[in-house]
Design brief:
about 80 residues, mainly beta, 5-stranded mixed β-sheet, about 5% helix, globular
Length: about 80
Amino acid sequence: MYGDEPDGQGQGPEEGRAYVELVGGPLDGLLLDVTGWPPQEVVDGALLMSDHGRFGPGGRSDYEPAGGGCGDVGRFVWRGDVP
């Protein structure tokens, strides 16, 4: 993910890579690199490890494509945290 380092060094999208923007929740504003993901996985969304979510270290944040899996795959929207 890009944008999660405090110093911001070396951060930013790289040409030729595919990203989705994370919207809401503990990872809001970060970019998730989905380069090489099978199309179905991008449509399904992702459970992402997050030290900043409700369940702290080891917890996961649930993100799915805006529009519930059939809309804007350029953005994943936060749906909640899980242990």
